[in-house]
Write a structure and sequence with these properties.
single chain; 544 residues; mainly alpha
Length: 544
């Protein structure tokens, strides 16, 4: 076979494989879309009459509350840290990102334990101040409490993107505003805030999608949302179609948020022209005002990370002798192995997709790839439903084909299904770092290698991959952390009696074994801090 024919067959097989990967990743979306044309389930009428309005109301209130608080906290803290010079500012740059390492459900039961009758605050009031409090010190197991918990864990999304935007803004515009007589407040409102609008809205959109994905916090606090409704329809009522209808409404909310984010951004440019750019010079305030800024940042850090983290450490200290056994270490190894394999799969398939886009001139492939990496924007419960339905259908077909009549599940409830679900959910997490890496290498390297007679796959293996090695391992790390703390997807698709650190922590907390659950929670939190350090270094490089 000639060289031209071999290259043609290689190209055909590569593109066919790429198309199959894209269609597989898009399976959950296609499943839910197709199933919407079937008749509603038996419990749909009961749900619409009694529960649907409550689900919608609670979900919208949760979204609006978290969006408001994350905006106020994230933008104000980003401006303070970027614009002013005060004691401990350099430390607060990264300390205020640490709450991202705290999953919402862990923060929820940590604060519940802190404020409970047996918690440290009430113990201090009783023992030191002789103040008796009946019940909890403050009841947060309600909708406002869920807003508070999710806001203090998600505001770093807005803080990160706002801070990056403020750092990129040129001093030229602020100097012009000062020459026109504007003070710091007026400059912030009229100049800095409008220029940072796309970044701020992007951060709020990310936080909102995390709210829609959350199951652990709202379930633990007893707040009915679409996510809890999907679980109830699937597990309690056994009504798959009703769960799919709820998933479709939840997807509509997600796409509305994404559509709003794209519309508000449009094609406007908010960054300054390069030759006009001057690095920002931070404002030095009086001693009293510097103390106020330090106190404000300290208060947010204490509430959003330090106090709950200390409580986790205390629980670990009290329970490690009972919890630290061979079963726990096996749980850690299993969770780490699952997360590492998922990260590697996502990184490998992201390379395949990106290299196909580099070789292919077709626009339809680019559009299909955009659909395939939407998984991170879709709640885990929705993806789980979209995967479980075709997998159950595949099991029925395999049983008929193999003449197995005992109802045994062949594919459902296996680790392979869970790994596939993680790949769908977190493809964007690995795809974007690798996309940035490929863009830095440029297309010229690939063209030069092919002109020298090398096959495309050899160019990828020997030239492209070594150049994007750092991005490859960054993608694995980011997916590793996200898989480790993923809860709703794992709860639905895991094999029977199969636990990860996230599901074990949640199960123990819901069974009032909060102290014992802290061991799993601590590992999740400490692992989540790794990419936070990486993110802070990236942002600091924007402006030294």
């Amino acid at each position: 076979m000639g060289l031209a024919k071999r290259r043609f067959y290689w190209w055909n097989n590569w593109m066919t494989g790429t198309l199959l990967v894209l269609l597989l990743i898009a399976t959950p979306l296609l499943t839910i879309f197709v199933k919407l044309f079937t008749s509603p389930g038996s419990s749909w009428s009961h749900l619409t009459e009694n529960l649907l309005v409550g689900y919608l109301q609670n979900t919208l209130l949760l979204l609006m509350g978290v969006a408001t608080i994350t905006f106020l906290l994230g933008v104000s803290l980003a401006w303070i840290v970027t614009h002013y010079e005060f004691p401990l500012r350099k430390h607060f740059e990264w300390l205020l990102i640490l709450p991202l390492g705290f999953p919402g459900y862990i923060m929820a039961y940590t604060y519940t334990g802190l404020l409970d009758y047996s918690g440290p605050l009430q113990a201090f009031l009783r023992n030191q101040l002789d103040i008796q409090v009946v019940g909890s010190l403050l009841d947060i197991m309600n909708l406002p409490g869920a807003v508070f918990i999710l806001s203090i864990t998600l505001f770093p999304y807005v803080y990160l993107l706002s801070r990056a935007s403020f750092l990129q803004q040129s001093r030229t515009f602020q100097e012009a505003a000062a020459l026109l007589g504007s003070n710091d407040w007026y400059t912030f409102i009229k100049v800095a805030l409008p220029m940072a609008r796309p970044a701020i809205v992007g951060g709020i959109a990310l936080a909102s999608m995390e709210v829609l994905n959350d199951y652990g916090t709202v379930k633990y606090f007893g707040v009915g949302t679409f996510t809890t409704g999907i679980f109830r329809s699937w597990f309690s009522m056994g009504d798959v179609t009703t769960a799919i209808y709820l998933a479709a409404i939840l997807m509509l909310l997600v796409f509305s948020i994404l559509f709003f984010e794209v519309i508000q951004r449009g094609k406007k440019r908010f960054s300054p022209i390069n030759f006009m750019s001057k690095p920002l010079i931070r404002v030095r305030l009086s001693r009293g005002k510097r103390g106020v800024l330090t106190a404000a940042c300290s208060l947010v850090f204490l509430i959003s990370f330090f106090i709950p983290f200390l409580q986790i450490i205390q629980w670990v200290w009290l329970s490690y002798e009972k919890s630290m056994n061979s079963d726990f270490f096996y749980l850690v190894l299993r969770s780490f192995g699952l997360a590492a394999v998922s990260g590697l799969l996502v990184a490998v398939f992201s390379v395949v997709l990106l290299y196909s886009l580099r070789l292919s001139p077709f626009n339809w492939l680019k559009n299909l790839t955009k659909v395939a990496i939407l998984g991170y924007a879709i709640p885990g419960a929705v993806i789980a439903i979209g995967i479980m339905v075709p997998v159950i259908g595949l099991d029925h077909w395999l049983r008929d084909f193999l003449f197995m009549g005992n109802g045994q599940m062949i594919v459902s409830g296996t680790v392979s299904v869970l790994l596939f679900a993680y790949m769908v959910r977190f493809m964007a997490v690995g795809y974007h770092p690798l996309d940035a890496g490929f863009q830095k290498t440029g297309i010229q390297v690939n063209e030069a290698s092919r002109l020298l007679g090398q096959y495309s796959w050899k160019t990828l293996w020997k030239i492209e991959l070594p150049l994007v090695r750092a991005s490859f391992f960054s993608a694995i790390l980011l997916v590793f952390v996200d898989v480790l703390k993923e809860l709703p997807l794992t709860l639905i698709l895991r094999p029977f009696n199969y636990h990860t650190l996230a599901t074990k922590a949640f199960d123990m907390a819901t069974n009032e074994m909060i102290a014992e659950s802290a061991n799993s929670a601590l590992i999740i939190i400490l692992t989540g801090i790794l990419p936070i350090i990486f993110l802070n270094r990236m942002i600091r490089n924007v402006n030294i």
